[in-house]
Structures are given as structure tokens and as C-alpha cells.
Specification:
This protein is α/β, with parallel strands linked by helices and 332 residues long. Helix content is 34%, strand content 28%. The chain is globular and about 55 Å long. The model has no long low-confidence stretch (mean pLDDT 97).
Length: 332
């Protein structure tokens, strides 16, 4: 790509400063030129630490910068849609952290803003770009394990910090929005289908009121998926993909270390083999692919059309909790 896309970042969230920004800076197609915080000193310290040329004391100032072509929005969940719409209206392409919205209706307003302004916009589901996910799906589609019948996912860690946005219900906190969305994404990604119905069992933290543990069953046309996610459990993650004649296991599916190989295990009638994937940074890949899409070279990695379908399943999970039974994902 002839020239790098010039990016600005809204806020100094840990995911941005610790992972996404350094990874994008190592890419071939993206350049981070500015960062904004409502605390200008915090913005300046972060910019200095990360080698970012510009620091702004408000999001509005960053959006008014004509040099910036694209914006990465890692703000708390309840601020994803309003600030992404403002960025689009300022003529900036937008990569929004997952989940892009708090619900289907809100996600639809984001799609309308994208279409109205003509910018590129997508959800930051970086796992979909990692070679281990691409390889696992390739094996499924090639029939390596026979017809796909089940996807089983686990994702958990422990966090009871009351100041953490994940534990603030009004900000879109909770395990389902933070990590349960990966279980949904994994099932949809490997089946290549949408679930027909959903049933969930959810436990809520008595103090924070957020969903602290959830187990969910998704009914697909071709099979079933079950996942458990928790913000108050020992750290663990795994994806198991089971077919009629074999099984694929992704060892570290969601946050693999970028400086070491990843492994997938393929079990068939011929035995078990390990496929090793060379070290890579999924955030670098995501940033480069999105930047290339801005230049007209390829598509946005996770478009909003996918984001709204994932959100429809999340809404159905909570509908099932309220109704104590099956719920149907709906896009309207």
C-alpha cells in the first residue's frame, strides 16, 4: 500500500495502550498520529510513552483534525455508538471495539450513520483475522473432521474491581458483553450459520448486578454450540470444534501471545496431530486489513452486518434469562 492510513485513538483504555496501538504501529498500513483523553495530561503522557505525535484534551479536538483519516474507538461500551457516529459525521472511518453497541436497535443506528456518511466502519473482533482461526475454519470446510456438529467454548477470568467498566452495568458491563460475545462469534464463525434459538442460564453478581457467569446453548441448523463465560472464575479459554469423524481444538483462541507460536490440535481416525502457527499479532493483522479496506484493497474484517447478528444473539441470551426459556435472535 503506497501510503499508510493515519489513525487517531479515542481514549486511553488499557486495550488500546497495551495491545492495539503498539500492534498497529508495527504494521505496514497504519500510522497512529493522535490520541485523545478528557484529561489532556493523561493524553500527553500516553502519547509520549507510545511515540504518538499529537495529544488532545477532548475527543472533539481529535475528530476535528483534518490529518486523521480513521479512528479507533475503545471507549466503554455505552460510548461506542455515540462517538462512532460523531467520528463518521466528521468524515473518519471507524474501527469500534466489540461489542459495537448495547443492542440491535443501537447497532442499526450505527449502520445508518455509516451508510449516510459513506465511511468504512467495522467491529474489532481481532480473532477472526488470526491465522489459527482461519486454519481451523479451513479444515472444517475441507471436511477434515466430517460434518460439523458442535462448537464448545470456555472463556473466563477473575475481576471484581468495582471501578472497572466491566463491573458497571450502566456502562454495558458484564461477562456476556465482554467475553461471552466471543463464544457466540466462534460458533457463528465455524458453523457459517446463524442460530435458530438460544437458551441461557445466568448468574448475577449481587453487588454489581452484572452477569458474572453464564452458560448458553445455541441451536444451529447443522448442530449445536455450548459455551460458558465468567468474570469471576479462574482464567481459562478453549475452543473445541467437533464433527462426525474428528475434532479440532484451539489451545489459546482469544488472546494468544504475539511473540510465540500458537497450536491447534486435530484429532481424526488417523490419530492426533499438532499444527503450529507462526507467531503473529492479531491486532496488527486487524489494523492492516482495515487500513487496506480504507484504501480500497479488500473488505473490512468484521463488518457491521456481522456485528448486528452477533448482537442479536446477545440480546436473545438476555431475553432467555428474563423468560426462563428459549429465545429467538431477531434483527429488528
Amino acid at each position: 500500500m503506497a501510503d499508510k492510513v493515519r489513525w487517531g485513538v479515542l481514549g486511553v483504555a488499557r486495550i488500546a495502550t497495551g495491545k492495539v496501538i503498539p500492534a498497529m504501529q508495527r504494521g505496514d498500513n497504519a500510522e497512529i498520529v493522535a490520541i485523545a483523553s478528557r484529561d489532556v495530561e493523561k493524553a500527553r503522557r500516553t502519547a509520549a510513552a507510545l511515540g504518538i505525535p499529537k495529544a488532545y484534551g477532548s475527543y472533539e479536538e481529535l475528530l476535528a483534525d483534518p490529518e486523521i483519516e480513521a479512528v479507533y474507538n475503545p471507549l466503554p461500551n455505552h460510548l461506542h455508538v455515540p462517538w462512532s457516529i460523531r467520528a463518521a459525521e466528521a468524515g473518519k472511518h471507524v474501527l469500534v471495539e466489540k461489542p459495537v453497541a448495547l443492542g440491535v436497535a443501537e447497532c442499526r443506528t450505527l449502520i445508518e450513520a455509516r451508510d449516510r456518511t459513506g465511511v468504512k466502519m467495522g467491529e474489532a473482533f481481532m480473532v477472526r483475522t488470526h491465522p489459527q482461526w482461519l486454519r481451523a475454519r479451513e479444515l472444517v470446510r475441507a471436511g477434515e473432521i466430517g460434518p460439523l456438529r458442535a462448537v464448545m467454548t470456555a472463556f473466563s477470568f477473575y475481576n471484581r474491581d468495582p471501578a472497572n467498566v466491566r463491573n458497571v452495568l450502566e456502562m454495558g458491563g458484564g461477562g456476556m458483553m465482554d467475553i461471552g460475545c466471543y463464544g457466540i462469534q466462534a460458533a457463528r464463525y465455524f458453523f457459517g450459520e446463524e442460530p435458530r434459538r438460544v437458551v441461557s442460564l445466568i448468574g448475577r453478581d449481587p453487588e454489581f448486578r452484572i452477569d458474572s457467569i453464564a452458560s448458553v446453548l445455541l441451536d444451529f441448523p447443522s448442530g449445536q454450540s455450548v459455551f460458558t463465560c465468567s468474570l469471576q472464575m479462574t482464567p481459562y479459554q478453549r475452543v473445541q470444534i467437533a464433527g462426525e469423524r474428528g475434532r479440532i481444538e484451539i489451545e489459546i483462541p482469544f488472546n494468544p501471545m504475539p511473540d510465540r507460536p500458537t497450536r491447534i490440535f486435530v484429532s481424526t481416525g488417523a490419530g492426533i496431530r499438532t499444527e503450529e502457527i507462526a507467531p503473529c499479532d492479531q491486532y496488527t493483522i486487524q489494523g492492516d486489513l482495515f487500513s487496506k479496506a480504507i484504501r480500497g484493497e479488500g473488505e473490512v474484517p468484521t463488518p457491521l452486518e456481522d456485528a448486528i447478528r452477533n448482537m442479536a444473539v446477545i440480546e436473545a441470551v438476555f431475553e432467555s434469562e428474563r423468560g426462563n426459556g428459549w429465545a429467538i435472535p431477531r434483527l429488528s
